[in-house]
Design goal:
With 271 residues, the protein is α/β, with parallel strands linked by helices. The protein is built from nine helices and nine strands. The strands form two sheets. Strands 5-4-3-6-7-9-8 form a seven-stranded mixed beta sheet, sandwiched between helices. Strands 1-2 form a two-stranded antiparallel ribbon. Helix 7 packs across helix 8. The radius of gyration is 19 Å and the shape is globular. S-adenosylmethionine binds next to helix 4 and strand 4. The site of S-adenosylmethionine (SAM) has 19 residues, from helix 4 and strand 4.
């Protein structure tokens, strides 16, 4: 017999499935997202005191992904003010806390291996000092350099070798060429059943004039890169860092749950 919890979770799945077929509701949300971008709405928020450049719905997705994937390493490209690093670090700290409670032991924050590795081409002094003096800093390591620089990629791969469950967030330069290079470099590090999230795929759904002052835009953005990468994985055999063939599926359930997201078709689940 199904438990009450199972029944509730089936009800929610049905709810999300219905939303996914409701083009009117999804269409309204596209209009809302477009207005948010015009007004720089994603910049209005902080996580534990640090500015984060995400809409709140996507921060919810981050929390759910970290809880369900239980990574020991999160790799993030694009640090900016540090809010997304602090968010990931804080949810990893909650995982540490929950482990300690479940195992009936004292929490010792210094013994956990879980951490976030952030990469940014320009970590400004005021951001670095705020991140380094934050109580979550013990769970954060940063590399300054371009995420597609060979030396940076080898440093990240070297660090990743010591970890078992890896989750990836790509949120740096949003041009097609850059994101495709990031996918080639980092997506193979994603663990099976974990995700490589490509943020800001929604650029592809905006009117062309929205990105006139940016090097990315229609036809040249994270979504076009993600689609090309998925095609490449179909045509060629590419193995993950674990030696198993790399295959990702776009998780539409997360997207239809959020409805409002900056990253339609950007939640790539390694299967
Ligand atoms: C959208 S912001 C990141 C926002 C952050 N993830 C958050 O949610 O708060 C993009 C960042 O990417 C960085 N960036 C731009 N080009 C880069 C590159 N080639 N390699 C690494 N980082 C880069 C910028 O310096 C900027 O800080």
């Amino acid at each position: 017999m199904r438990s009450e919890n199972e029944k509730y979770s089936e009800y929610v799945s049905g709810n999300i499935e219905k939303i996914g077929k409701d083009s009117g509701f999804l269409g309204l949300s596209n209009v809302w997202i477009r207005e948010c971008i015009k007004k720089n709405y994603a910049q209005n928020f902080t996580w534990l005191g640090r500015p984060i450049i995400q809409i709140p719905q996507d921060t919810y997705a981050i929390q759910e992904l970290i809880w369900s994937c239980r990574p020991d390493l999160i790799i993030e490209t694009g640090i900016a003010h540090g809010g997304s690093l602090i968010l990931s670090a804080s949810i990893l700290a909650i995982l540490d806390y929950c482990d300690a409670v479940e195992q009936g032991r004292e929490l010792n924050p210094n013994t956990s291996r879980r951490k976030v590795l952030g990469i940014d081409i320009d970590i400004r002094a005021h951001n670095r000092s705020a991140i380094e003096s934050h109580p979550m800093s013990h769970k954060i390591e940063m590399i300054e350099g371009s995420s597609i620089d060979d030396d940076v990629i080898s440093q990240v791969k070297h660090i990743a070798q010591g970890y078992e469950r890896i989750l990836i967030f790509l949120d740096s330069n949003h041009t097609h060429e850059h994101v495709l290079a990031e996918l080639k470099a980092y997506a193979p590090l994603t663990s099976i059943n974990s995700y490589c999230v490509v943020w800001d795929t929604g650029v592809e759904d905006l009117p062309e004039y929205f990105c006139e002052d940016r090097p990315w835009g229609l036809g040249n953005n994270p979504k076009t890169a993600a689609i090309e990468y998925l095609k490449l994985l179909e045509l060629e055999t590419v193995n993950g860092a674990d030696g198993k063939r790399l295959k990702f599926e776009i998780d539409k359930i997360i997207e239809h749950k959020l409805v409002l997201t900056a990253s339609p078709d950007g939640f790539l689940k390694r299967v």
